[in-house]
Amino acid sequence: MPKGLKALKDSLSTMQRQVLLEQSQKEILNKEEQMLLSNQKIGGTNQNLTVAELKAMADFYRSPLGDISFRYV
Fold it and tell me: pLDDT digits over 27-72, tens only?
């Protein structure tokens, strides 16, 4: 295989991995957004969560989702 072709294939592989990482990060942010928009479901129907509680929940979900998503990239 010519050097130039190998370099292009390596670049393509690198870019494909980067796209997968970006898609995973976007999916995590979308799930975090869904959680934030439905905070009354997390806190119950009669109780809204504080900003600190919402941030803690977002951090809680972000970490495991990131670990799961990035494991497949």
Answer: 887 887 777 667 655 555 556 778 888 788 777 777 766 665 555 5
Cβ proximity of 24 and 73 under 8 Å? yes
Written as six digits, the tokens of 39 are 């905070």
d(CA 67, CA 53): 22
Q: In this structure, what DSSP letter does residue 50 have?
A: P
The answer for 40, left when phi > 0, alpha when psi is -120 to 50, beta otherwise, is alpha
> Under a CB-based contact definition with an 8 Å cutoff, are residues 40 and 6 in contact?
no
